[in-house]
Amino acid sequence: MDLSEYKQEFLQEVKEYIDVMNQNFVKVEKGDLEALNEIFRVAHTIKGMAGFMGYKKLELLCHRLESAMGKIKECNNEEIIDIMLKAVDKIEEIVRKIEEEDNDDVDVDDVVSSLESIAGISVKEIKKEKKIFDNADLRIDIKLADDCAMKGVRATLILESLKDACEVAGVDPDEDFMDSDDFDGKFSVFVRGGDRKLIEDIVSKAGEVERFEIVEIKEKKPDKREERHKKSESIRVNIEQLDNIMNLVGELVIGKGRLIQIAQNYDIPELKEAVSIMDKVITSLQDEIMRIRMVRVEKVFNKFPRMVRDLARKFGKKVELIIEGEDTELDRTVLDEITDPLIHIIRNAIDHGIESPKERKKSGKNEVGRIVLSARREKNNVIIEIEDDGRGIDVEKIKKMAVRRGIISKEEAERMSEEEIKMLVFIPGFSTKDKATEVSGRGVGMDVVKTRVEKLGGNVKLYSEKGKGTKIVITLPPTVAITKALLIKVGDQDFAIPISNVLEALYIDNDVYKVLHGTPFLYVRNNLIPAFRLRELFNIENGKNIEREVGIIVEREGDRVALIADAITDQLEIVIKPLTGFLAKVKGFSGVTILGDGRVVPIIDVTTLLGR
After folding, report:
1. Mean pLDDT computed over every residue of the chain
2. Which is the catalytic residue, given 22, 24, 302, 348?
3. Concatenated DSSP letters of 19-51
4. How much is the pTM?
5. Is 526 a catalytic residue?
6. Is 66 a catalytic residue?
7. Which of 98, 196, 475, 575 has its C-alpha lying 20 to 30 A from 558's C-alpha?
8. Which position among 9, 13, 44, 320 bears the catalytic label?
C-alpha cells in the first residue's frame, strides 16, 4: 500500500499533538493530573498512526511514554517531567527527520531507557510484551511442557511445521529470544490464511506441548478510507494553495473596481447590473476566504507554557504564565509574523523582568512571578498584551546607557520625557544588559518586535513602572491582504491611507489651522494636534491653489497627528502589494495598490512616514 499520500496529514496531526503534550505536561507538573488523560490519548494516537505508517522508532517511543506516564500519579516531580518532555522533544526531532528524509532513523535509546527506568520495565518484560502483526488472522498461544529439555529447538520445529500449512506473520517473543536461557516455553505465533482445523492438528500432534489455544484476531487496522469519510466535514489545505487563492481574490477585487469604473464612465445599464451582481458575489467570496484564513491565537499561545517553564528552571526563577483570550482570531499570515516578536518579549520578561525568588521576597512580592499573555478584539484591530510583575524599566539606567552608547546626546536625554526614554529599548542594538546571555542582552529582539509589528500595519506601546512591572501592548490589523482605505489627492498624485489608521477627517479653515512658534497645529475640540503637509513631506509642487484642504487625523505611537492633503477622493477596498527588493527600504510606504483604471497608488505607512 502506498502511504505517501497520508504522510503530510500524519505529520500535521503529530505536530498538533506535540503542542498538546507540551501544554498538558506543564499542567501535570502543577498538579493537574486530569491533564494526563489528554496526554495518554495523544500518545496512544501517535503510536497507532506511527505503526500504520511504518515508523517503528516513533511507535516504540510513544509506547514507552505511555508506560512511564502511569508512574506520574505515584511520583510527580520535576525530574520525571523533564524526562517526559525530552521524549516529546525527541518526537519533534523524529518528525523533522521524516519531513527531511522520509525515515525515523533517530537515536532514541537514551530517552527510551530513561522512560523504561521510570516505568520499571525490565529487559525480560520488554522482550515478552505482546506484539501485534499486521493482517494476521489467528494467534496461536503455545505453552511447552516444563520438562522440555530444549525449549528453543522444540519451538522452532513447531514454527517450521506451521510454515508448511500457512503464512507465519510473526512470532512473539522473537526467535533470538527463544534461543536464549531466559525463554520459558511460552510463545505466540501469528498466522495469515490456512485452514484452522489443519493448524490445530499440527500443534496438537507436536511433541512436548502442554497446552495451546487458537485465538481469532478481531482487531483490524483502521481503514484509512473510512477515517477520511468520517473526517469529510473538514479537510486540511496546503498553506501555499490558500495564499494563491487569496492572491487570485485580490486580482478579482482589482478587476471588479475596473468594471465598476467603466460602468460609471460609459453609463451602460446592462453592465451596471451585471457588475452589481458580480460585486456581491466577489464580496461574499472575499469574506469566505478571509474567514478560512483566520486562525485562533491559541495556535501560537499554546507553545509558550513549555517555553516559560524551561526558561524559568534554567534561570532558577519561579514563573506563572496566565493566558487569556486564546480564542481571538487573526489572519494566518499575521499570526505567523507575530510569533517571533512574542517569543522575544516573553524571553525578555523572564530574563530581564522577573526577579529571582530571593529578590522578590526581599521586595515584598510573591516569590512566583507572573506573566499575563492576553489577546482581544477591539474595533477593527486585535490587541495582544504581555504584562509581567517584575522589576520594571529603570528610566535612569536606560538614559545613561543610551548616552554612553551614543544613541542620544546628553542634551537630548534631558529634554526627553520618560515615555520617550522607555521607547529607546526598541532602537536597534540597544540593550541594558551588561553581559549577554543566550536568551537576551545581545541588542537584538525588541527592535525586531517593533519592525515586524509596524510592517504588519500595527504599533507597539510600552508601559512600565520601576519595581512594579512592564506591559507591552501590540495593536494589529486582523488581516494584511485586503483592507479599506481612503484615497487622497496631493497635487497630481494619489495616495491611499488604511482606514484602520484614521481617527477622523475634517476640512481646514483659519479656525482650525494654527501656527505656534513656527510649528503648524490643528485646533480640534480644544486640543492642539501637530500637523504635517503631505505636499512638503513628498516635495510635491503646489500647482493650482486648493480652496479647502483636508486634515486627516491619524494615530502614531500613541499620539495623534494630522496629515494635510488636498482632498479625499474616495473610500474603497484595496489589495496591498508589498514593496520588495530595494523598494522595501523606502520609508513612509507599506506597499502599493492597483486601482480599477490600472493606476499604481502608494499606501502611506503613518509610523515610518514621520520617522523619529
Report:
1. 82
2. 348
3. HHHHHHHHHHHTT-TTHHHHHHHHHHHHHHHHH
4. 0.65
5. no
6. yes
7. 575
8. 44
